[in-house]
Each structure stands twice: as structure tokens, then as C-alpha cells.
Amino acid sequence: MTSVTEATPLTNSLTAGKLPRRSALWVLLASWAVSAAFFAMLYLSGTVDGFNLVGTAVLGTVLYCVAIYVLSRLVEGSRKAMDRLMTALVTTAFVIALLPLISIIYTTVVNGLPAFLTPTFFTSSQRNVVGAGGGVLHAITGTLMVTGVATLISVPIGLLASIYLVEYGRGRLARAITFFVDVMTGIPSIVAGLFAFALFALLFNDPGIRFGFGGSIALSVLMIPVVVRSSEEMLKLVPNELREAAFALGVPKWLTILKVVLPTSIAGIVTGVMLSIARVIGETAPLLIIAGFTSSMNYDLFSERMMTLPVFVYTQYANQGADAQAYVDRAWAGALTLIVIVMLLNGLARLIAYWFSPKLGR
Amino acid sequence: MTTAAATTIKARQRPGDRIFSSATVIAGSLILAVLAAVAIFLLVESLPAFVADPAAFDGDTTNFWSYVGPLVFGTIYAAILALIMAVPVAIGIALFISHFAPRKLAQGLGYLIDLLAAVPSVVFGLWGIGVLAPLVQPFYTTLVDWFGWFTPFAGPVSGTGRTIFTVAIVLAVMILPIITAICREIFLQTPLLHEEAALALGATRWEMIRMAVLPFGLPGIISASMLGLGRALGETMAVAMVLSPSREVIFQLLTSQNSTTIAANIALNFPEAHGVGVNILLATGLMLFVVTLLVNMLARAIINSRKAFSGAN
Fold first, then answer.
1. Measured between alpha carbons, how far is A331 from A334 in angstroms, rounded to an integer?
2. Biggest alpha carbon–alpha carbon distance for chain B
3. pLDDT tens-digit readout, B61-88
4. Mean of the pLDDT values across residues A197-222?
5. Interhelix angle B15-50/A189-203, nearest 10 degrees
6. Which stretches are transmembrane (chain B) (predicted)?
7. Cα(A88)–Cα(A65) distance, rounded to whole angstroms?
8. Where are the domains of chain A?
9. Which end of chain A has fewer CB atoms < 10 Å from its terminal CB, N or C?
10. What is the model's pTM?
């Protein structure tokens, strides 16, 4: 750090040695304008074809960082200049992260809508379809069944485990479970798929086994830790006074948990479960391994391959047929369906949390 | 806390209590059992791969270790590249949300970044091929023209942009949300008194962050990066779709020959694999599991050791 003793002589105004208010904004606009002028000149002179909007934004932002640093350094000194530069960089980092999100949503909607809007997209499967046409009914059915069963497995286990951690667990076992639940959230999804495959291949002695229930097991491995983590947080939020009041009335502990603790925290738990569904519903790799892919309907979780929506997107893109554009279109439309489902789940979960959360502030 | 009082007066054990508490214990232990089962079943199924006949491997590889070696290299190379790109941006975002953005907006902006985590990886894959690769390809050409003397940027340049560098960018975007989320939590835990003391001594906001927030958050940043690394190591579909793969050790970032990763290799070859080929792929999966498990355990251990000392709890 620079020495703070070298004070510059102050003029008798409180705003001395400072840039005017809103100068940052004006410098930003000016830099963008200069950069736009530069690219407009390139465009008009015919050096490049088309006005480069991305280039304008990038060059303008870089220009702003340099300009505000130099200006501030001249007027306000090096410490303040560094502060302004860092503010600019940190804000830029945030905007950079938004660009892929916007780009992904935009391209998915634009590329996905044509096939998404065809009448057969939600009413038929891909059976005997070559080229354009067909739909994702088989994939949506598969996704709902596989994810539904995974939820049925994960929620009871996850919820009971989180109750153990919050209400009963002390000592070594509880600490081990907490630690390994955190570790399990980082297991690669494809490893979960390989695990389900290895398990059932050994169990049924079938080295080429593919079926939907295996996919549910693989998704459960990924889902349980997420459910435990979120439910644990919610159960911890229940005030101890409620439990103590129930105990004082002579209510057994298990009834206290069932009738007092769970109803109090149910909104948060539901939110957590929905977020965990949103997380696993888009998993591709484990389902590709154990559930496989097919172009026909399959309502039976326990036999034969079963198509799911993420795998549908992947196979449509990877195995393009004669009319390649039709397959790519369907892949994007599948991606759009998937994004809509995930965003709906996320939005709904946040709304539930917002509406039903206990109002703590008075 | 609630059972602490029960040491002197023993409550009557009702059947309901016994059933319920043992159900929770079983559910809790089941989680540990599942983790153990993942390791055991993968190990059992991958044993044949370690003693497989040299003819079972394609190309000129003759044993499992020479098969998995380049894959491990590719996995780590792509993940490290992604990490180098993601960590500075993630720290910036976390600082923006925790210390720069207006308080009322901060939570909403956090959700916005979390939405990025909700996008399925297969959509990232489509986006990587369809949008990102064509977008960055011209830059690659320029890079190779100007900096071709530097080995990682050596040519010939890929015509499609489907290189390991593009994959690293996609991976970086995918691991941004998790790194950001943890950094944000840690930065918000900075003792308020430290921040106020720095400001009271006349520090600017950036100096306050450098002197109070970053030193406090450093272990958090490290473990968040390691969790991000774990994600990047295991990410499958985006790599499988974007990369034009080859199973060799290749340092060049921008050519059409790229080291592929373990996960992508499994996803691409598993549907057609048969016989001992399945076991070989499962064995590479076991390697991936062990590596990510170690990385995650280390990261969590660092976070947990920090939690005990943080002034916030």
C-alpha cells in the first residue's frame, strides 16, 4: 500500500480532489460512443461487413476501465483510482457471467420454437420416423417416470436422514454422515450411472442391461444428498421453543417431530425437493448409461430401454439422419422443453418458499 | 440440544419413538452404505479390465494404464483450464453481489447466477457446438497466426472451433455458479467489525476488501475452487458433444486433435461397448470416482475446519 502521509494541500471545498458526481456514468457512455464510432467507421469504410455490436461493447468497456483509471488517478490519486478500476472490473465480471445465460436462453428459444410448435411434437413418439416429424412423447413419459420414481426413493430417505442429523444425531455417525453427504454432492453424474449399471449387471447377471428403474437408482444417488442438505437447513430453522413446548405438554418426541417440526418447515422442505428434482431432471450421462435410448414408447420401468428428454436431445444431435436439419431442430426443441421444465420448477420452488416461509421479522 | 436434559431423568421409551428413531438412523446410515456400494460395485466390475487381454484395447495400447493415462491427462487439463478462467470471474461476481450491488438487488442477482446452474448440461453442449464454437473460431485463427510459436497455441488451427479450449470455456461457465455461491457465502461471513474498522481508518472499498474480506475468505476461495474442479473433472455431456476427441496426450489448445476426458470417453463409447470393453470403461469411471472423491473430501475438510473459527457462527 502507498504511504498515506503525503497529503495533498486541500482547497477549501469538501469536494476538492474528487471527480464530479456521475462522472463514472458519463465516462462509460463516452467510451461506448467512441468505440461505436470506431466500429461504425470500419463498417462504413467497408473494411468489415456488418456493424460489430459485440466488439463495440468489449472495446468500449476496456476503454472505460483505462479512462476512469487515468482520470481518477490524475484527479483523485492512485488509491481512489484503484478502487474505481476494481469496481469496474467486478461489475464487468458479473455482466460477463450473464452473457452465456442470455445467449443460451435466446438461442434455445429461437432454434427450438419451429419444431416445438409442430402439432405432433407433444403427441407422438419417434417410432418409424425418418426425417422431419415425430415428437417427444416417449421421452417426456420416460423422464416423468424415471424422475418420479427417483423422487419417491430419495425424499423419504433424504428427509429421514436429515431428521436424524437435526433431531437425534450426535457424535461420530452424525459427523460422518454430514461430511459424506457434502462429498456426495460432488460425485460426477456419470459415476452414478456407472454404479447403477455395475449394480444391476451383477445382480441380474446381464452385461448389457438397460432399463428405466436403473436410471431412477442412479438419479437417487445424485438426489439424496441434495434433499438431505436442504431439508437439514430447513429443520434447523424451526425454533427450539416449539419443540420444548411440545415436550412440556408430554408429547412424545416422534410425534413432536411429525406434528410440530415437520409442519413448521414443510414449505422449505418442498422447495428443496423441487430444486433437487430440477437438478436431476436434466441429467443426461447416467441415463445414457443405464436407461439407454429408444424411439418407441415404454411404460415399463423394469424392462427394456427407456427414452428420457435429455438423452433425446443428445441422440437427436449425435445421430443425425438423412435430413440433418430436422434432427437438429428436434434437439433444440427438446432442449427448449427441458429448459422450460427446469425453469418452471425453479420458479415454483422460489414462489413456494416466498409465500409459505414463516415470517420471521415483526 | 434437546436431548441434553434427558441425562438425569430418563424419558419412557415408547414403541413409536423406537421405530421412528431407528428409521432415521437407518436412513442416515444408508447414505454411507450407498457411497461404499458405489466404490465396491465399481471396483468389482472393473477388476477384469486390469488383467484384460492386450487385444481388448484398440489402437496400439496394450494395457489398462496406457489406455487411461491420456484420458486422465485430458480430464485434468480441461478442468484446470476451466478453473483458471472461472475462478477470477467467480470471485468478481461474488464480490459484486456481496459488497458492490445495492442491497435490495443482491439476492435477485444471486438467483440469476443460480439459474445458470439449473441449465442442463446437454443444453450447454448444444450451445457449445451451435453458438460458442463458431463464435470463437476466428479468434483461434488469429491466435495461431500471431502466437503460433508458443506451444499451446501452435497450429494447425481447428476449422470448427471444437477444441479443448472451447470445452474449457463451456466448463468454466458451468462451474461458475458453484464457485460463486460458496465465495459469496464466505464473503458475507466476514466479521462486520473488520470491515467497518478498515473503512473507519480511511480505506477505500477496494482496500477494505483487500485487507478484510479477501484474507478472511481465502480458505473459502480455495475450497470453492476445488469443488468447482470436482465438477469440471466429472462433467460429461458438454465435453462429449463439443470436443472432437482423440485419445492422446496433446498440449495444443486450438487444433482439431484434442485429448478427450474420462467422462466424455465413457459417454461416447459406452452405448456400443461389449464384453471386456464395458469393464474397461467402468474401470476408467472408477479412476474418475476416486479422483473426484479425493478432491471433494479435501475441499470439504477445508471448509469445515474454517467453519469452526469463523466469527459468524
1. 5
2. 81
3. 778 888 888 999 999 999 999 999 999 9
4. 91
5. 90
6. 19-44, 64-97, 109-133, 164-188, 208-229, 280-299
7. 6
8. 23-114, 137-356
9. C
10. 0.88
Chain B residues in contact with A1 by the CB 8 A cut-off are 207
Contacts of A33 (CB under 8 A, 6+ apart): A60
pLDDT (0 to 100) of residue A224: 95
**Contact of B185 with B93, CB cutoff 8 Å:** no
Which class is domain B20-309?
mainly alpha
What is the per-residue pLDDT for B219?
Answer: 85
Tracing cell 466488439 back to the chain, one arrives at A55
Give the number of other CB atoms < 10 A from CB of residue A249: 8
Whether the predicted pLDDT of A356 surpasses 90:
no
| Residues in chain A closer than 8 A to B123 (CB atoms) | 104, 108, 282, 313, 335, 338-339
Contact list, B115 vs chain A (CB under 8 Å) = 101, 343, 346
Amino acid of residue A226 = V
Fold of A137-356: MetI-like fold (1.10.3720)
- Which grid cell sits at B180? 460463486
Size of interface A-B (CB pairs under 8 A): 292
Res B36: pLDDT: 94
Of the partner residues B16, B27, B241, the one whose CB lies closest to the CB of residue A161: B27
Cβ <8 Å between B21 and A104: no
Which cell goes with B152?
499451446
Q: Which of A89, A174, A288 has its CB closest to that of B92?
A: A89
* Residue B131 to residue A244, Cβ atoms within 8 A: no
Contact A177 B31 (CB under 8 A): yes
